[in-house]
Every structure is written in C-alpha cells, then in structure tokens.
Amino acid sequence: MLGVVDIVKALKLAEESGLDLVEVSPNSDPPVCKILDYGKYKYEAQKKASIARKKQKVIEVKEIKLRPNIDDHDYDIKMKSINRFLDEGDKVKVTLRFRGREMSHQNIGLRVLERVKEDVESIGKIEQFPKVEGKLMTMVVAPR
Hints:
single chain, 41% helix
C-alpha cells in the first residue's frame, strides 16, 4: 500500500522489482493499480474460472414416453427411471402418445399422468401441467 503515487514513479517501482504494473480499477478516481506478475495473475484467474465451470451442474431434460393403456409392471419400470432422473437433478418430460382411436379417450391418458403426478409428488414438482399437442400429451416434472 503506497497510497497515491505518480504514474512514472509507479512504473519505475514495478520495473525495479521485475514485475508488471496492472490497472485493477480504471473507473475509480484515482485509478487503482497493483504491482504483480501479470502472467501468474492471468493463469490463476483462468484456473479459478475452470474450477467454477467444473462445479456447475447442467440441468438436462430427460424424456419418458408412455401409452394410455400401459400395464402396471411397465409403469413401475418407467417410474423407477423417472425417480432416478429426478434424484440426479434432471428435469423429466413425460410424454403420452395416443394412436388411432385412443385420441377420443384422452381422459384415460390424463388419469395416467395424474398417477405419475401423485407418485413423484414427494421428490419432484410439476413444472408444466399436462397439455395436448396433436397426438401427444406432455407434462414436465422438475426435482424439488
């Protein structure tokens, strides 16, 4: 901490110590500078950024496809997958596909999605409620 120093004197001090004069805060009045090894400073900043990138979790949207007349065992297997995805921190898009005459019985598909909603209520929350898009009915579940 040298206080307010003339720029020529600051450059001379940096040169004598074999380091660089780095402007840390150019917008303040007077500008704040430090005498340090710029290469080392840049390397450490890059290392910090790399560690921060490594620690962040990218949330993916996994998709589970169901049918309106799904059997109990098949449903249980799909629920295990949904629970695993939610435990890993990913969102799950539950897609119900209607074929042919099943389109006229959308209430059966809605019951299946209500069952999924009840089963994941403890570990997930419904982010997008069931909505129909053509022959598909979709719902998005996010982890709690």
